[in-house]
Amino acid sequence: MESQPAPGEVAGNDSSRGLLRTAWDFSFRMVLRYIKNSYKDDPFRTFLEVCLIAFIIWYITKQKYNIGNNEIVLSEKEIDELVEEWNPEPLVPELTAFERETLEKAIVIDGPNGTRVRLASGSNTKPLINFASYNFLGFLDNPQIEEHAYETLRKYGVGSCGPPGFYGTLDVHMELEKQVAAFVGHSAAILYSQAFTTTLSVIPCFSKRGDIIVADEGVNFSIQQAIMLSRSKVHWYKHNDMADLERVLNEVNVQLTNRRGKKALPRKFIVTEGLFQNTGDIAPLDELVDLKHRYKFRIILDESYSFGVLGKRGAGLTDHYSINPHEVDLLIGALCYAIGASGGFCCADKELVEHQRLSGLGYCFSASMPGILTVAASDAIQVLETNPDNYLVSMRENATLLRSLLKRIPGLQVEGDTDSPLIHIRLTPETLVRMKRSGGAWTNTDIDRVLVELTEEAQKDGVLLTPSRYVDEHERLLPNSSIRICVSSAHTRKEIEKCAHAVKSAVSRITSKKR
């Protein structure tokens, strides 16, 4: 017999069902009341939520895409055949014949750099007078700086092993930043561990997509790369042509005035060099500052090669023109050329410097400058501040003397400002025409080969020179082939005369050869 439920149990189940039914009816009535009260005056909301519910139902119930199993099974023989046939593309383009020759003849210095060096290879084992390094003030082989550097090495080691914001900042870094800012005459300064990446960090830090950059066509490769990384809208003006610059600035302002809409005004920058690496020219800062105020632009000035070189104190282009450094919004400099250490800096107002500490890629993600090089830069600046005439006057006298001697050489073209220790020389077009060549017209590669031969001939007379090198595919304005001569205050008058004599003899021997 089946057991009969107790009367109390049946009553309990009926009571539970009744409570659930009552709760459900109450909830349903509450939902209906909420819908009526919420949606009677807002039909768009009702439509939007119905569409959303319909989309959710469609997405849940739709047929899922099944990629299936498309694996292709190959035999061992087929795999071997595919491996043999595979020919990977090279990671870099194959070297040309001239590029291979250039690498084979690359100059390698054996030992420390300075005004006199020895080459690691070649038949010439005697010391050469070095006119190939940016050692404008002779600090590379200064005995006092070298002795202090040894002491610093024992105290700080070879490196900080971390970015400045992550345990990489030393007391000497902060002291050098204050020293550089005071020497230049600006509000504050920030240090970067590499000169090349200083420009690559500063320009993209302030000029972004949608901003406007007006740049000189003759700026060096690092500035060109920084402008590209900024993704700003770029306008170029002819090298050191202030009339063309004014034309471009006026066109930019007219375009901004005539544009439609109420978009925020972009930031506008003029970008140029103090002392141009590729030409040896000096930028007319007085005219640039005038145009800056008239057309409401900011100036980014790269003083990598003019810092420590131009001006009565060697403080750069602002010192050279006796202009307040605050007229330059972002002043970039290098400590690895005239100063003879490493790294770079940017002088600006304190707010702009602090912004770089958070957004300058070269500052945030690169290990800070080694303490030994930081102290060497500090010592070099202090020596220059103590006795500027001893270094700057002799450097300029040497540059003036060498330039005058080179201009007397027939068939040679000499370029660069009269106050510049950076001199570019090249053979004149008339000289190239007179040189006999069986292959027809001269190409850039042919001229480069001739200049390499000229430097090799100069080495036979005890003088080290180097041709200028450019990245052909990425240079905005590819300069003409030349030999770059760097004059130092450490060179004696006899060494200057020997350099001019070596160039003259080399030109004579090169131009007399049949080609």
Automatic annotation (TrEMBL):
Pathway it works in: Lipid metabolism; sphingolipid metabolism; Sphingolipid metabolism
Coiled coil location: none
Keywords in UniProt for this one? Acyltransferase, Lipid metabolism, Pyridoxal phosphate, Sphingolipid metabolism, Transferase
Q: Which cofactor does it need?
A: pyridoxal 5'-phosphate
Q: Which GO BP terms, alphabetically? A: ceramide biosynthetic process; sphingosine biosynthetic process
Query: What does UniProt give as GO cellular component?
Result: endoplasmic reticulum; membrane
Q: Which InterPro entries match?
A: Aminotransferase_I/II_large, AON_synthase_class-II, PyrdxlP-dep_Trfase, PyrdxlP-dep_Trfase_major, PyrdxlP-dep_Trfase_small
- Domain Aminotransferase class I/classII large, by residue range, is 127-502
Span of the signal peptide: none
Q: Name one GO molecular function term.
A: serine C-palmitoyltransferase activity
The question of whether Translocase is a record keyword is answered with: no
| Pfam families, per database record | Aminotran_1_2
Q: Give the EC number(s) listed in the UniProt record.
A: 2.3.1.50
Instruction: Write out the similarity annotation.
Output: Belongs to the class-II pyridoxal-phosphate-dependent aminotransferase family.
Supply the name of the protein: serine C-palmitoyltransferase
Source organism of this protein record: Coemansia erecta
Q: Name the encoding gene, please.
A: LCB1
